[in-house]
Amino acid sequence: MAAASAPTTQLTAFVALDFTGYIVERFSHDPAVAERASHAMTLARRAGVPVFHVVPESMVDDIHPLLAPIDGEPVLSKTTIGAFATTGLHDLLQQAGIRQIVIAGVATAGTVLSTARWAFDVGYQVIVCSDACDDPEPEAHAALVDAAVFPQSWIGLWRIANVLPTAEIAVLQTRESAGTGVQPFEAPFTQGGTSG
Predict the structure, then answer these.
(1) Using CA of residue 136, residue 69, residue 158, residue 194, what is the dihedral sign?
(2) Is 65 exposed, middle or buried (0-12, 13-18, 19+ CB in 10 A)?
(3) pTM score
(4) Which pLDDT does position 17 carry in this prediction?
(5) On the CB side of 89, how many CA atoms lie within 13 Å of its CA?
(6) Which residues of 8-33 are buried (b: 16+ CB within 10 A; e: fewer)?
(7) What is the rounded distance in angstroms from the CA atom of residue 63 to the CA atom of residue 53?
C-alpha cells in the first residue's frame, strides 16, 4: 500500500541538456532561455524532482551559472548528441525508479530531439519543457514544439511527448500539487509500429 501512495515526483526526473555558457551563447536564438530553464529547474527542485545535468565532455567546466548543479546533482558528460548513449543516464534513472523525464535544453533540433526520441523508444514518458528549450533557428524550434506549425509532420516532438510550457507541467509545481502528476502521454502510434 505504501508504494501506491508515493508521490509521482519520485518517478520523474528533470534533465537539463547542454546548458553551458558556450552553447547557450552560440546555439540559442534567445539567450533568455537560460533564465527560463533555471526557473523550471528551481520548480523541479522545490517539488522534489531529481535533477540530472548532461553536457558535452569538453564543457563540463562551462555549465551556465544559472543552471549550476547543487547538492550533489549528477553532472554527466557525453560524447554524442543525445543524453543517453555515452553517459550511463539510463542506468541512473532505472536505479532511481524514474519512469518519466522532463527535458529542457539547447538546441531543440539537436540534443532535445535526440534525447526525447531515445527516451520514448525505451519506454519513458517524456515531457518537453517548451519554454526552457531553444534553437539557433527559431523556425526549427517552432516546428518541433508547436503542432500547429506542421501538423502533418512526423518530426514534431509533440508526436512522442507532452510539449508544455513550464507553468503547465504539473509535476514541476509545488509539493502540494505534485501528487497529481501529469497524465501519461498517448502516442499516435504504438512502439514498434507506425500509424495508419
Answers:
(1) positive
(2) exposed
(3) 0.85
(4) 98
(5) 32
(6) bbbbbbbbbbbbbeebbeebbbeeeb
(7) 9
Residue 109, C-alpha cell as written in the block:
533540433
Q: Show Cβ contacts of residue 167 under 8 Å, excluding neighbours closer than 6 positions.
A: none
- List, as one string, the DSSP characters of 118-155: HHHHTT-EEEEEEEEEE-SSHHHHHHHH-TTTSTT-S-
Residue 162 is classified by DSSP as E
Q: Say how far apart CA 84 and CA 114 lie, in whole Å.
A: 9
Residue 114 phi, psi (nearest 5): -60, -45
State the cell numbers at 140.
526549427
> What is the rounded distance in angstroms from the CA atom of residue 74 to the CA atom of residue 140?
30
Q: Which amino acid is at 116?
A: A
Q: Quote the cell numbers at residue 175.
A: 509539493
- For residue range 50-100, what is the model confidence (pLDDT) as tens digits? 999 999 999 999 999 999 999 999 999 999 999 999 999 999 999 999 999
pLDDT 10s digits, 139-193: 999 999 999 998 988 999 999 999 999 999 999 986 544 444 444 434 433 333 3
Neighbours of 133 (CB within 10 A): 29
Residue type, 155: I
C-beta of residue 89 within 8 angstroms of C-beta of residue 76: yes
* Farthest CA pair distance, the chain: 50
